[in-house]
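User: structure tokens for this one?
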Amino acid sequence: MSWLEHERYCEAIVAETALMRETARGADPTRTVPSCPDWTLRDLLVHVGQAHRWAETMVRLRVSEELPDDAEHVPAYDPPPGPDDLDGWLDEGARLLAATLREAGPDLPVWSWARPQRSGFWARRMTHETLVHRADAALGAQRPFVAAAELTADTVDEWLDLITDPEQIAGDKELTELLGTGQTLHLHATDTAAEWVIVRGPERLEVRHEHTKADVALRGTLTDLVLALMRRLPLDSERLEILGDRALLDHWLARTSFG
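Assistant:
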């Protein structure tokens, strides 16, 4: 599926981080994040900042193998202890990542855990890593979450690109279980024209942008579709509508997560 312009991702990394910082500002940093129950709100912010600095280091060094995600290999990996210092550390890391990605452009060869192994992968991945975790921060701080439609639709596109990639499927037992005999899932955003149809074939998963009848349809606003797909919004929410085979949708969501 089509990507946004590289510069749009660079801008979004900084902007989404700023919105996350604003969301968390004044909230109790020890509050548990409901969608990431092993983390406090501070843990979540630190995770995002460390991911930014890890990705920036790999792109800057043009690594051909995975760089350990730790303080020994990533400069300024650990934030200062104070809340104001954490806020500044997050902002600095996001801006540093965006600047490195701009300098690299989208086609610089660099290691990544999925295709394409180019700097553009990290621009897109860190954009949506930040956007989804901003939603987590909003849940933890009990504040509203709203995202630009363009970015939200691309979050769905990226997610489907990753989990339908034949290389990813071949190396992941749970993704392999998504292959089927032609079953179809329809994702329908009720507030935009965005729609996706997923066809579960015996050898590959196919994704199309179209409106058609499917075995199961999930309907909701574009934001709520993203939250449901990322398991941040339960399917039983009154903000969602499910038509057709609910078990098929449950099966899909149970096998599509980062962990």
